[in-house]
TrEMBL record:
Residues forming coiled coils: none
Pfam families assigned: Amino_oxidase
Residue intervals of the Amine oxidase domain: 21-452
SUPFAM superfamilies given in the database record: FAD-linked reductases, C-terminal domain, FAD/NAD(P)-binding domain
Cofactor: FAD
Signal peptide: none
Cross-referenced InterPro entries: Amino_oxidase, FAD/NAD-bd_sf, Flavin_amine_oxidase, Flavin_MAO
Gene3D superfamilies for the chain: FAD/NAD(P)-binding domain
Family the entry assigns: Belongs to the flavin monoamine oxidase family.
Protein name: NAD(P)/FAD-dependent oxidoreductase
Keywords: Oxidoreductase
Length: 464
């Protein structure tokens, strides 16, 4: 804690807690509306779950990084900020490793499995697309079938739809391991529908050509970095918020370095971290329960850098999948105009538990063995190897985002953005479209800012 005599006291119209994309997207809208804003961030950097670092001479995106065509809020922001994007490398064949350990090269999005399994996967995909079209992303909890779908795990729901275990395992992988980073028995079918609906359809979500389309030159963290630069001294880093006192007339927010008195607050942080703030008076029972039914998944994002993208010489795209390996997916993650080649792979949920039980060298060897199974023995010897483990990051504690336990989405979803007096909420974990993605964080920031502006305007009108 800082010396109380050195703590700065600030008056503002709005205080934003969290300098991820949600908070940094809300703040400019508030400034444009003529309001004084202060943004407080616990970390010594901005960006939240977006983080770019140069490690071993290569730029690595340690958090979120991809931009897809449906992410219109993100695309608008990238254009407004004057940032450039580039296409993910995808020329050549992809690799699939089957249950027997056979390495199969293929083209297109359909995995090389038995014809009857392909047909069953296509049928399950069509069924999920129908549910997405019917339920949507914005209020899945309001659908007549919400409780039915929310009280059965996605794994159990798939088993009810199909007796093809291989088809079910692959469909489960796309949402469980690849997106929610939880095993399919740990989240509901309704949560799976929301995850698919956030991208417009399940077909979009499983299409790596679509969902992993582009990257930002210099890294996706340039979005929050540029937003923060434009906000200037309004953004204060290294200021963990410890206490938030609130009355109908406003808030007093106490951090380690700054105390802010404001008319409104936007809490723009992962819902799993909200209970770390001492709210006075305490939040209503509904919010306390809501936050307890949300949890992060777990994933290791593995970066392997080589002196060149050697897999391209073999006609490979760098894209690989297998529900049977620890590294369930991998991609060519070479930077824009970089001579070095980079592969990125992912180890999630219970598989991550297993490798974290190993020491660092054992874990490295085990993970690189899977990359070698995909791309050949040269993949086992990178010049740079780095693991992004967001589960140990103090101000995140998991990845990629928070999702509800069974029954939680239908029970609490309608209240997750409901203001508590002068306190509003924003984060990608509460988004509909763009749920758990940067696009959803931006949308939630814009929505919270609009709510605050409307509330302040109404207050001003009542006074006059």
């Amino acid at each position: 804690m800082s010396d109380p005599q050195q703590i700065e006291h600030i008056d503002a119209d709005v205080v934003v807690i969290g300098a991820g994309v949600a908070g940094l997207s809300a703040a400019p809208r508030l400034v444009e509306a003529g309001h004084d804003v202060v943004v407080l961030e616990a970390r010594e950097r901005v960006g939240g779950r977006l983080w770019t670092e140069v490690i071993g001479g290569t730029l690595l995106e340690l958090g979120g990084q991809w931009v897809s065509p449906d992410q219109t809020a993100l695309l608008e922001t990238v254009e407004t900020l004057g940032l450039e994007t580039f296409e993910r490398y995808r020329a050549g064949e992809s690799v699939y490793v089957d249950g027997a350990g056979e390495r199969i090269r293929f083209t297109g999005e359909q995995l090389p499995v038995a014809d009857d399994t392909v047909a069953e996967m296509e049928r399950l995909t069509a069924l999920l697309d129908e549910l997405v079209a019917d339920i949507g992303a914005e209020e899945p909890w309001a659908h007549p079938r919400a409780r039915e779908l929310d009280t059965v795990s996605f794994a159990a729901w798939l088993a009810q739809q199909s007796s093809d275990e291989v088809a079910c395992r692959h469909i489960a992988m796309f949402i469980g391991e690849a997106m929610l980073t939880k095993p399919a028995h740990a989240f509901s079918a309704l949560q799976a529908v929301l995850m698919a609906a956030s991208a417009g359809s399940f077909s979009n979500l499983v299409d790596s050509e679509f969902i992993l389309d582009r990257r930002v030159v210099g890294g996706l963290q340039r979005v929050p970095l540029t937003l923060a630069e434009r906000l200037g001294e309004r953004v204060r880093t290294g200021t963990p918020v410890r206490r938030l006192e609130h009355t109908p007339d406003g808030v007093v927010v106490t951090s380690d370095r700054v105390v802010v008195r404001a008319r409104r607050a936007i809490v723009a942080m992962p819902p799993t971290l909200i209970p770390r703030i001492d709210f006075q008076p305490p939040l209503p029972r509904r919010q306390h329960q809501l936050h307890q039914h949300l949890s992060f998944g777990l994933v290791i994002k593995v970066h392997a850098v080589y002196d060149r993208p050697f897999w391209r010489e073999d006609g490979l795209s760098g894209t690989a999948f297998s529900p049977y390996l620890l590294v369930h997916e991998a991609y060519d993650n070479t930077n824009h105009e970089d001579e070095r080649g980079t592969l990125v792979g992912f180890v999630s949920d219970e598989h991550a538990d297993g490798v974290f039980a190993m020491d660092a060298e054992q874990r490295r060897e085990r993970i690189l063995a899977d990359l070698a199974a995909y791309f050949g023995p040269e993949a086992a010897n990178p010049v740079v190897y780095y693991e992004s483990d967001w589960g140990t990051e103090e101000w995140t504690r998991g990845a990629y985002g928070a999702s509800y336990d069974l029954g939680g989405l239908s029970r609490y979803g309608a209240d997750q953005r409901t203001p508590v007096g002068p306190i509003h909420w924003a984060c990608s974990d509460f988004a509909g479209l763009g749920f758990q993605h940067v696009d959803g964080g931006i949308r939630s920031g814009w929505a919270a800012a609009a709510d605050v502006v409307a509330a302040l305007d109404a207050s001003r009108a009542s006074v006059s």
